[in-house]
Amino acid sequence: xxxIDEFRIDIPQERLDDLRRRLDATNWPPPLxxxxxxxxxxxxxxxxxxxxxxxxxxxxxxxxRLNHFPQFTTEIDGQRIHFxxxxxxxxxxxxxILTHGWPGSVAEFxxxxxxxxADFHLVVPSLPGFGFSGPVADAGWDADRVARxxxxxxxxxxxxxxGAQGGDIGAxxxxxxxxxxxxxxxxxxxxxxxxxxxxxxLTDAELAAxxxxxxxxxxRIEAFLREEFGYISIQSTRPQTLAYGLVxxxxxxxxxxxxxxxxxxxxxxxxxxRILDRDVLLTNATIYWLTGTAGTAAYVGYHQxxxxxxxxxxxxxxxxxxxxxxxxxxxxxxxxxHTIVRWTEVAGRGGHFAALEEPELFVADxxxxxxxxR
Length: 374
Known about the structure:
By secondary structure, this protein is α/β, with parallel strands linked by helices. It has one domain (40-197, 228-371): Alpha/Beta hydrolase fold, catalytic domain (Rossmann fold). The protein has helices spanning 13-24, 43-55, 59-67, 110-116, 143-156, 170-180, 204-208, 212-227, 230-237, 239-248, 250-264, 278-291, 294-301, 331-334, 354-357, 359-371; strands at residues 4-7, 71-76, 79-86, 94-99, 120-125, 162-167, 185-191, 318-323, 339-345. It has a nine-stranded mixed β-sheet with strand order 1-2-3-5-4-6-7-8-9, with helices on both faces. Strand 6 (162-167), helix 6 and strand 7 form a beta-alpha-beta unit.
């Protein structure tokens, strides 16, 4: 089946009523000593966010904003794929496919769609198993399979020459799309680390060859492996066990997601709702809740290898990397797998969620890179 069907988000009211009942009936744990972020999401902070979810947040407003953009579904390789498709009015617009990551969604891109559509025809799919592309019908949704699915999606849309952009999981999928369709993909833009990452511990000689900024990134990779890697271990080995709690408890799911928004937004020591609007955070989490995809997203997300494996084959496609302050990409390692023609480092601004945190900077860098590739 190769049909493309129009899609509109229209969540039944009973699902929203059920969410409210569950939030009202939350069985809160006692706070651990200090109630700080070192032991996870603080009870005091999360109570405030949940209270806004219960009494102030308006899903219908978020739904209207999402539905402002044309949406569709199609089936590829046995999997339902949901995507936004925003056509430009520019006659020579370049098609561009944008890929989100975990724990994100297509909502990551809402602030950049209109400005980018001045120059690009935009295709923004939900990853298989995420949101309205969930759940998954079978196993094996690694970056290569997702990339081949994206290539087929672009073919069905009539796009035979296009660019690719992505962050987090998307930073693996977008370059892989360049590998599987090098005659179609004119350029790849990623934010974050496209992989491979530095593999601590580094030798003294390796460390000596790095800049001070790069040595700081190695230290932060070491801290991540030491202090934060547990969620990857759980999601990649026991996603079904984890799913029972996440799909049954909206507060449990919200806490699981907010833990990463706090760790990965910039600056790290700032509560995430002081960096991003609370409604933005809740729209992303509510998509996971209403679609029941916390488990399948975990299952798919960490089938990707998270950038810690060996370098894949070097892509021949011109690649741009946007490295914001939170990011840990190091060019000499990234060049093992990518033909990097543009490398932009931004000090003191931006975290893991580039389109959410720094939409103007994100748009400017994407435009500047693809301007030379039309």
